[in-house]
């Protein structure tokens, strides 16, 4: 990739700048501020894949530099005007050394009309800006540094025209509200992004059982000794006897339940029980999250059977996939956030935080991967089938009609009999989970 003033940050670091998260300050808001304030400088926008640099003079967009294939300026100049890459790079280097306009130099030395070069840059600039406006995550940095090579540009774009053309609407009331909350939101976001959160320790009853499980020569009796909470014992028996869990015969004792369920499923039930009392001030919301998680676990167990996967592991992952929601409820309670902003943070970041919690609590890699990617299964780097099963189960548990196209297609492809026993029995499953989670 070509290196130039446009992709060199050394000079910018010596200038005044502001930076932040695009999830908290959208690109459309930044551009409106630059234009209304008639700012001159460089705006760098970055997401997971690309970095784009927009150069402004007196609030007008005059130049753009992008590393995305199909939007690179030097490729466009080569293709449209027949110049070699070596000549383009030579002109760029010369303009930097002399501190003169890159476009002006090309026009004068190669005989290319300035208007044609300006039209090309305008097209690329509007294309890059329009595409970038759709970014919901990433970071930005605006500095008052403006390279000499972009000055005297024939391009003079009013950014708000591009905003309107992209159907991006600016809500001034929302901007004022967001600005007042930025310090809080930025703090929370940075803690999550940097992994610097004060993640709670493993609940006591879980730690006791984990210590036992890791001991050599573990016996069933030693496991049962850890299960002293009557409510926990009741939940274990109710789950193991649920028709949706898959056992036909009656499980009458805790010993039978432990043998039947296995350690992984048992640990997940212990986790759910521990989390039910994790944040007393949010007991009702936690109950709803756990109810949904139990439903996802039950559905995932059946789907895994139909798809030839590990049904026990699917049950465990279904129970634990939304653990980040519960931890974030407690974590965000110390901030003065209204419900809308709190719910936004939880919705966006519960998978990231959940994966951090799972790692600290020494959950398996499969569980960590599911928690991290259960909303975007295509991003899973491992255990893809398991992540896909939890994603499908999560969608089915919402009981929405019609199903999203990708869900219906995946179910039809992988599991021709997915409808049994859930599609016609979700209300029954809902009541069954109410019974399992009830304190009585």
Description:
- The chain has 2 domains: 5-170, no CATH class; 200-437, Hypothetical protein af1432 (Orthogonal Bundle), CATH 1.10.3210.10.
- Helices cover 59% and strands 7% of the residues.
- It is built from 20 helices and 5 strands.
- The chain has helices at 27-36, 73-81, 85-98, 102-110, 114-132, 159-165, 172-194, 204-213, 220-226, 230-241, 254-276, 283-307, 311-320, 323-332, 339-360, 365-373, 384-397, 405-414, 419-422, 426-437, and strands at residues 17-21, 41-46, 51-57, 60-66, 139-143.
- A 5-stranded antiparallel beta sheet has the order 1-5-2-3-4, with helices on one face.
- The longest helix is centred in the C-terminal third of the chain and has 25 residues, at 283-307.
- The N and C termini lie far apart (66 Å).
Radius of gyration using CA atoms only: 28 Å
Strand coverage percent? 5-15%
Largest sheet: 5 strands, antiparallel
Structural class: alpha+beta
Topology of this protein?
Layout: E1 17-21, H1 27-36, E2 41-46, E3 51-57, E4 60-66, H2 73-81, H3 85-98, H4 102-110, H5 114-132, E5 139-143, H6 159-165, H7 172-194, H8 204-213, H9 220-226, H10 230-241, H11 254-276, H12 283-307, H13 311-320, H14 323-332, H15 339-360, H16 365-373, H17 384-397, H18 405-414, H19 419-422, H20 426-437
Antiparallel strand pairs: 1-5, 2-3, 2-5, 3-4
Helix pairs in contact: 7-15, 8-11, 9-11, 10-11, 10-20, 11-13, 12-13, 12-17, 12-20, 13-16, 13-17, 14-15, 15-16
Brief write-up:
Helices cover 59% and strands 7% of the residues. The protein is of the alpha+beta class and 440 residues long. The termini are far apart.
